[in-house]
Specification:
30% of the residues lie in helices and 31% in strands. It is of the alpha+beta class. The longest helix is centred in the middle third of the chain and has 14 residues.
Length: 240
């Protein structure tokens, strides 16, 4: 399942939107699907910025169960049924007041267009605490993923995130540019890391975001150090 997990992470981290299914109180517990945008930070936990008057928000206040489905529609235009998709099932939880400030900062950094909704009343942040993850990568590439990697866990290096980012941006900017060149065919000597995740980092170039995935999951500072070294070696021929 490790190969499936890496593919699922790539789709998850590179996606901005999906279909959120909730349980409808007004319609006899039938599932209700709606288009939503989301962001993800250190953990593999989808974060939503939802309006109180939206139907899916009313539903989750009735029952918190939800499922986010993400589809990669760009791979196979002729047979969309064979495209990659990821379904994350779990419980939707409102972000606590003591977490709200940092969540807001991170969310707006990744989804700056969402800041426009701040002037309206009744928008709040929610997270999906995942308890099941289903991957379909095409015909015969199907399975339930290791849920331990999709939980809302405390990560050992999280308090050092800014220090790691500052170090990489100031001392290893060439490796960031090489990674962007290799993975996304973007040449930019001024590219910077914006945020870290357990799966890699979000880099910003010309006001656009790009995700660089690490070979393995990074749960400790030592994990991150080793994975960044691996990326540097992997992308060394793409320096310019």
């Amino acid at each position: 399942m490790k190969k499936f997990d890496q593919k699922a992470v790539s789709l998850f981290r590179n996606s901005k939107s999906g279909v959120l299914s909730t349980i409808s109180k007004d319609n006899k517990d039938y599932p209700f699907g709606s288009f939503v945008t989301f962001a993800s930070f250190i953990n593999r936990i989808p974060i939503f910025y939802l309006s109180d008057i939206a139907q899916h928000t009313k539903n989750l206040k009735y029952k918190p169960h939800g499922c986010l489905t993400i589809v990669n529609s760009s791979i196979n235009e002729k047979d969309k049924q064979n495209n990659e998709r990821l379904s994350l099932m779990g419980d939707l939880v409102k972000i606590k007041e003591n977490e709200k400030k940092i969540i807001k900062e991170k969310f707006y950094a990744l989804r700056p267009e969402s800041k426009n909704y701040e002037k309206f009343h009744g928008f709040n942040f929610y997270k999906l605490k995942v308890n099941k993850a289903r991957w379909i990568g095409g015909f015969g590439k199907i399975g339930w993923l290791n849920i331990d990697n999709w939980k809302d866990n405390n990560i050992q290096w999280s308090s050092k995130e800014n220090n790691i980012i500052d170090h990489m941006n100031s001392d290893h900017s060439d490796t960031i540019s090489a990674a962007l060149n290799c993975v996304h065919n973007i040449k930019d000597n001024d590219a910077k890391i914006l945020q870290l995740t357990i799966d890699g980092y979000y880099a910003i170039s010309n006001s656009k975001l790009y995700f660089i995935q690490t070979p393995n999951i990074c749960l400790t500072s030592e994990d991150y150090r080793k994975n960044l070294i691996k990326l540097s070696k992997k992308h060394k021929d793409y320096k310019f």
